[in-house]
Amino acid sequence: MHKTFVAISILILPVVARASVTARVGDVTRLKGQGINYLTGMGLVVGLDGTGDGDDYAMAMRPLAQALSGFYANPVTSMEELKDTKNVAIVFLEATLPESGAREGSQIDVQVSTFGSAKSLRGGRLLPAPLLYPDRNVDTVFAMAAGKVMLPDDQIATSGTIQNGAVVLEDVVHAFTAPGRDLPFSNSWVQPHQTYVTLVIDDNHASWTLAREIAQAIDSALALAADVEHVALAADLKNVLVLVPESQVGDPADWISQIEEVELLISSGEARVVVNRTSGTIVVSGNAKVSPVIVSHRGLTITVSTIQDESGLTLAEPQVQQFIALDPGRKGGTNLSDLLEALNRLNVPIDDRISILTQIHGMGALHARLIVRD
After folding, report:
1. What does DSSP say about strands 321-326 and 5-10: parallel, antiparallel, or unpaired?
2. Confidence (pTM)
3. In whole angstroms, how large is the CA radius of gyration of the chain?
4. Pairing mode of beta strands 289-290, 366-367
5. Are residues 215 and 305 in the same domain?
6. Which structural domain range is residue 276 located in?
7. Are residues 193 and 238 in the same domain?
8. CB 79 within 8 A of CB 62
9. What digits encode the pLDDT tens for the residues 141-173?
10. pLDDT digits (tens, 9 = 90+) for 168-210
11. Is 24 exposed, middle or buried (0-12, 13-18, 19+ CB in 10 A)?
12. How many domains does the chain divide into?
């Protein structure tokens, strides 16, 4: 029996002119201090139909129930509720605070997951439990969680969600400005008594080139309004410092809004390939190219080479090999996207496509920055 080999030949052509797109500063950056925060905790889910942890966890449930009573009035009305521990489960709790912060009284969703040997949380309700910041040095109770656990439609029964199940008890407000003395950047432009905001460039855009372009764009748009020669500084490839004028220090919202609305041209010069193994996606930006290379992967043979024959590739030994001609007439630029399109047309599984990309990159034949996320 013959093995089937798929050979894909790619024509390498000269790089075409770069293109640029217009974007706002706020599209590719965030403010330092702006970000999500996680709260965690432990709790008890009761009311299960014999699918709880069982007697092996009874010794842990009783002290946990007693500890919870210190945070909330009588969460367990009687220790008799824990007598049949198959109806009770110890759970891990997690809640996410919005990147804009949260105010006292706000409600947020709670993720609930079994911690012991419980088989299902179906029909259960979480007894009131505190949510803390996952730092031992911070002992503030930021929220209280309770309520009925809702399970997803699929067969996963050991984790669920309590929608709006946590009530925030403490304000979580982010500080978006900082005096120069508190900044971690050493530069004569930064003055200790002045106030700054720090723009953090997205990981997928971070580069010295873009940081410089952002600083220059903000300078052109806002330096005159701030009555200074330079209002922005590219501190490194991810951070851009922007001076807050004295007139705006007390209420910087308008100034920050103006910063975010500044337009800049983003060049597509840097080629990037972003691979997400979990979602099974591959995103290519810029002019990603592949040098001549041959890769063999699970019976799949990929040949990338320069082609001189303008008539294209012919089908030889159709029972043994398949050939796909990519741009045989050399009418357009051929790059990594052509290889991915060919693999897609051949129904190559996404895991194999990712493996092929990483192999080509490992050999130095992929001319793009490869970012792999799990």
Report:
1. parallel
2. 0.52
3. 29
4. antiparallel
5. no
6. 5-18+271-373
7. yes
8. yes
9. 889 999 999 998 766 788 999 999 999 988 776
10. 988 776 678 889 998 998 889 999 999 999 999 988 778 888 8
11. middle
12. 3
